[in-house]
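> forwarded from #structure-qc
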């Protein structure tokens, strides 16, 4: 998050950007895009992400609330995964009804 703030994200010029860029941020299998300043799309393609899903969502919500741009915004966190990549990790995704 500090790096994105140092890059002046979000700004008056953009409210859509990649907050977490997987391996580039030392979090292989996890990407987070901020869309329109009100939605965080979390993309999981590693078993560790699915195992720690609730913690990741909780920490993400807390970090975003600490940023002045999101202090008064209810960020919608949307979780997506890639079942084929998760199966490579030996993790089976259970489909919800």
């Amino acid at each position: 998050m500090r790096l994105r703030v140092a890059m002046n994200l979000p700004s008056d010029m953009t409210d859509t950007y990649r907050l977490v860029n997987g391996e580039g941020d030392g979090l292989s299998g996890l990407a987070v895009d901020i869309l329109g300043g009100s939605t965080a799309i979390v993309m999981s393609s590693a078993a560790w992400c699915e195992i720690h899903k609730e913690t990741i969502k909780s920490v993400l919500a807390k970090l975003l609330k600490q940023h002045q741009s999101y202090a008064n915004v209810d960020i919608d966190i949307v979780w997506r995964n890639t079942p084929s990549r998760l199966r490579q990790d030996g993790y089976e995704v259970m489909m919800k009804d």
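QC bot note: The longest strand covers residues 30-35. The chain has a mean pLDDT of 87.
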